[in-house]
Design a protein that fits this description.
This protein is an all-alpha fold. The chain has 4 helices and no strands.
């Protein structure tokens, strides 16, 4: 399982995938802090919102940069096999998918914090 996750992180572009992973860890830490803290949570919720939007856009930025590189390689090569193209598209989808998952986790946490609000 560990190798599978590491392989996906490396395939999707290490810069974008590992940055997204670090932001996920930060969001989870902030959510835990907000759930355990009985005081004011507005600043923490605002920070989670900003991080979640950033990670979503970060994932799509990784996809665009990856697709530009892939299309450059295809242009240089000329004729390319469908299997190679499908593999490239799969790799390009990993970064925004991970960004969307982190975005959803953050937003679900915000919904939970909103429901607990007095």
């Amino acid at each position: 399982m560990y190798l599978f996750i590491t392989n996906l992180l490396n395939e999707g572009g290490p810069l974008f995938m590992y940055t997204t992973l670090l932001i996920l860890i930060a969001i989870i830490a902030l959510l835990v802090k907000a759930f355990l803290n009985s005081g004011s949570k507005e600043k923490t919720v605002a920070l989670i919102k900003h991080l979640s939007l950033f990670v979503l856009v970060w994932g799509f930025t990784g996809q665009m940069i990856g697709l530009i590189g892939a299309f450059d390689a295809i242009q240089m090569q000329g004729n390319i096999a469908p299997e190679v193209l499908a593999g490239g598209i799969k790799v390009a989808i990993l970064s925004p998918l991970f960004g969307m998952i982190v975005f959803l986790i953050a937003r679900l946490g915000i919904i939970g914090l909103t429901l607990l609000k007095k």
